[in-house]
Structure formats: structure tokens, C-alpha cells
Amino acid sequence: MSAILMHRRTNRQIHVLVFAGTGEGPALVAALAHAGRGVSVSVVTESAADAYRFADLKNLHVGSFRSFEDLGAHCLTHAADAVVDATHPFALTISAQLHQVCMVHGLPLVRFERPGWSTDRASLLSGVHELAHQPLQGHRVLLALGARHLAAAKQAGQAAGAIVKARVLPTPAAIRLAGAAGFSGDDLAVLRPLRGIRPGAVEAALCRRWAITDVLCRQSGGAADALWSALAESVGFHLWKLKRPSPPDTVPVVQSTQELLTCLDGLSV
């Protein structure tokens, strides 16, 4: 290979396609751009896209993909050299499709995972159904997880003998799902987490008002996971966490921007 060709390959700007779905996305994208990578971002909603409006991007895609074929076409159209899956840990469909697309088209894939939060007052569950087998007779359980899980979680909690309450986000879809699961009135709190002068104060007050003994949330990492882990210690309830899914063994996992940059440096792109 001539010296000119080697120079061109060494200095070619690597293009990274980031699928973002958590609050850590903007920092990851900024770090990639600062390190000289070309970056494109894909998010699902317009509100999520707002965090990237002034970022140094090649492309910003907003919206979901209708099929595996659409997702593959998107990756190829934007000539990605590597793909970063920074979607929510429980966004199983998009993560599975990204893995399949990258396998088919020979694209390196890296999974960004937010570090988990631990507390001595927490137990992991592999699924909502496991709550039914816990010793919860007479306990007061607060469901603080995605609205689509409410119906199954309520059924499991009641099967264990618990009184079940729920907290959902202030969105029409979440409130509608809560109603369909049978939550209303004093059994339902509608609020956005980590708001107010002291983040977590509203959640702590809610737990005390309802005399909550147990909380069910997701092991998602990030601010919400940290909040419930901290409140379990300060308020004194037991925390049940739905274990986050593990990526395929063939997909490298990183937990920081530096790990991501190092991993991308080592990929054959």
C-alpha cells in the first residue's frame, strides 16, 4: 500500500451512528465529536431530539423504524462505520434489531450500559411474574416502572397478598394504561421523577403518605435507578428491581465515554 493511501485511511473520519434513548446520550455524542468522530444520532421522539439540536452532527433522525429492513437501510444510507446502541436497557425490540442489522451488514456494534446502583435493601427479579412468589402478605407495594408493565405487576403483587399502588409519568399513554390496569383515585400518582427543589422529595413524601413497604422498579441504571436505591435506604422500604436484559455475548459493553472511545479505537472499521 502506498504512503498516500495509508495516510488517507489513517486520517479518514470514522462515522459512528448512535441510537440514543437515555439522558447520557448527549454526553456520549459530544465526546465522540470532540474525539474527531463523525456522528449521526437516531432518537424516537421530538422531545428527545431537542438535546441534540445544536450538537455537531452529520445527521439527526427522529422517529421509530417500521421494520428491520428500514433500520438496515438507514445504517447503510448514512455509511456508518460503527453503531452504538445507547437505547434504554428495556428497549428490547430496537436492541435486537440493531444486533441483527449489524450482523447482516458486518457493522461493529457497541452497547452502552449505564452503571447500576446497589443497596442492601434491594432484590433482583428476572420478571414481573416473580413478584407473585415473594412474601408480601399485607405489604404495601408501589409500582414505579414502565406503564406497560402495570397490569401484570398489579396482578403479581395482589397474588402475593399485597396492597398495590402505582406511579406513572404525566403522559396520556401512561395514564390510559394505568386506568386499563385498574388504577385510579388514591391508588395512582401521576408525576415526573426527579422534579422540584429537592429531587426525590416528592417520591419520598408519596411513599410515606401511602406507608409503602416495598417498591418495584427497573434496574435501568441512571437517575431513576439511583433515586429509588437512595430512597430505599432513607425511607426504609424494600426495593425490588426488574433485572435488565443482557446483550448478546458477542456485543462489547461499555459504561463510560472513555470506555466507548477506547472500544471504538480497537474496532476494525
Uncertain residue ranges? 1-11
Which strand order do you get reading across the main beta sheet?
3-2-1-4-5-12
Major sheet summary line: 6 strands, parallel
The counted number of beta strands is 12
The gross shape turns out to be elongated
Short description:
With 269 residues, the protein is α/β, with parallel strands linked by helices. It is 37% helix and 20% strand.
Key words describing this protein structure:
269 residues; alpha/beta; Rossmann fold; 2 domains; six-stranded parallel beta sheet; 20% strand; elongated; disordered N terminus
Notes on the protein architecture:
There is one protein chain. The chain has 269 residues and is an alpha/beta fold. The protein starts with a helix and ends with a helix. Mean pLDDT is 88; it is low at 1-11. The chain contains 10 helices and 12 strands. The chain has a 6-stranded parallel sheet with strand order 3-2-1-4-5-12, sandwiched between helices. Strands 6-11-10-7-8-9 form a 6-stranded parallel sheet, with helices on both faces. Helix 7 links the parallel strand 8 (163-168) and strand 9. The chain folds into 2 domains: 3-113 and 246-266, 3-Layer(aba) Sandwich (Rossmann fold); 122-242, Rossmann fold (3-Layer(aba) Sandwich). Helix 2 (25-34) crosses helix 10 and helix 4 (68-77) packs across helix 5.
